[in-house]
């Protein structure tokens, strides 16, 4: 069946470090992937997305990498800041009108 | 442009009651999806509405229902509440629900069933 999972439930880093959050997906037909950040008491906030016809996409301090061969997705955050502390979810979608399928989430803790 | 808004933000109900939650999408967005978030199950898809029609439905019992109005606002209803329905209910909107469209989430409605 379809599922999206994250490799680690928690990740602790020091302020200024680069963070890498990983996600594995099982549906090879998925063609759209999104990373969300969720802070306590808030809804998921869009960070960055990538289509299956791309391998890499960069935003401000964030980069998403997609490896379709091994069905792996990663989010890289450069110069991690305390404000980056949150739960990060990856999500996938297969076709128009189908649901986003979310992984369990990785809690990123940034200490200063 | 205002984001997705959800009302109420917090709700306490007792078992057996019913509840209606409301979602106003981003202006111009016509697709509205609902998700349930719990610590144990994570984020799970409930249903999606587009042009007042339910286009997709997740694996939830019939007690969970929804609708969409002509202005794209959406409501979801849960009847005969159970303790396990306690969760954060999230609404997300996108332009038309296309496969490469981003969904933007509201702050959610926190439902506690006693």
Overall structural class of chain A, as computed from helix and strand content, comes to mainly beta
Shape of chain A: globular
- Bin the helical content of chain B: under 10%
- Kindly, what is the distance between the CA atoms of the first and last residues of chain A, rounded to a whole number of angstroms? 41 Å
What number is the mean pLDDT of chain B?
95
Can you summarize the main beta sheet of chain B?
Answer: 7 strands, mixed
Radius of gyration of chain A: 13 Å
Distance between the amino and carboxyl termini of chain B: 37 Å
Oligomerization status of the protein chains? heterodimer
For the largest interface, the chains and their residue counts are: A-B, 27 and 25 residues
Total beta strands of chain A: 11
Q: What's the helical proportion of residues of chain A?
A: under 10%
Brief digest:
The complex is a heterodimer of chains A (112) and B (114). Chain A is mainly β. Chain A contains no helices and eleven strands.
């Amino acid at each position: 069946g379809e599922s999206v999972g994250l490799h680690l439930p928690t990740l602790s880093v020091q302020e200024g470090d680069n963070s890498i959050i990983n996600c594995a997906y099982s549906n090879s037909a998925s063609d759209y992937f999104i990373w969300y950040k969720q802070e306590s008491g808030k809804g998921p906030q869009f960070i960055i997305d990538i289509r299956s016809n791309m391998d890499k996409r960069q935003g401000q301090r964030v980069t998403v990498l997609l490896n379709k061969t091994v069905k792996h997705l990663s989010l890289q955050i450069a110069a991690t800041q305390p404000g980056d502390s949150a739960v990060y979810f990856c999500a996938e979608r297969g076709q128009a009108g189908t649901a986003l399928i979310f992984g369990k989430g990785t809690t990123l803790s940034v200490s200063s | 442009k205002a984001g997705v808004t959800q009302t109420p933000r917090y709700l306490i109900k007792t078992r057996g009651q019913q509840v209606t939650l409301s979602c106003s999408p981003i202006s111009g967005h016509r697709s509205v999806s609902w998700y349930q978030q719990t610590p144990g199950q994570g984020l799970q898809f409930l249903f999606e509405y587009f042009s007042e029609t339910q286009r997709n439905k997740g694996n939830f019992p019939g007690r969970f229902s929804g609708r969409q109005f002509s202005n794209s606002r959406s409501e979801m209803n849960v009847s005969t509440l159970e303790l396990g329905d306690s969760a954060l209910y999230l609404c997300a909107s996108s332009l038309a629900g296309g496969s490469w469209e981003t969904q933007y989430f509201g702050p959610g409605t926190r439902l506690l069933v006693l």
